[in-house]
Amino acid sequence: QVQLVESGGGLVQPGGSLRLSCAASGIIFSIYAMAWYRQAPGKQRELVARITTGGRTNYADSVKGRFTISRDNAKNTVYLQMNSLKPEDTAVYYCNGKWGVHEYWGQGTQVTVSS
Predict the structure, then answer these.
(1) Separation between Cα atoms, residue 51 and residue 57, nearest integer Å
(2) Following DSSP, what letter does each residue of 63-111 receive, concatenated?
(3) What is the DSSP string of 14-34?
(4) Please, are residues 58 and 90 in contact by the beta-carbon 8 Å criterion?
(5) pLDDT digit string (tens) for 6-15?
(6) Which of 20, 62, 89, 92 has fewest C-beta within 10 Å?
(7) If we measure between CA atoms, which residue out of 16, 13, 32, 15 comes closest to residue 24?
């Protein structure tokens, strides 16, 4: 059974930081491209950051320079370090793993940026 389990969300003030984690099980983690998406109320789900099996990364323009995606294949975990958070970063953040036609999603973790 494949599971992607996110953690690390919460309430943070503007300018603050959070680190999200996504622990994978039931897959050969190292062969999956991993990504973080987010969905704000009333909006479509959007790609935040992606990391390939080789460690190449790409980011949404809105988070470049503030967010960093990384992976630890030994721990089957992908991370999203979020700095300089803004109220518009408020959303449910989802972990995604993809290998060919195989694609899996986590259940999401809420991030709220508010004073």
Answers:
(1) 4
(2) TTTTEEEEEETTTTEEEEEE-S--GGG-EEEEEEEEETTEEEE---EEE
(3) TT--EEEEEEEESS-GGGSEE
(4) no
(5) 999 999 999 9
(6) 62
(7) 32
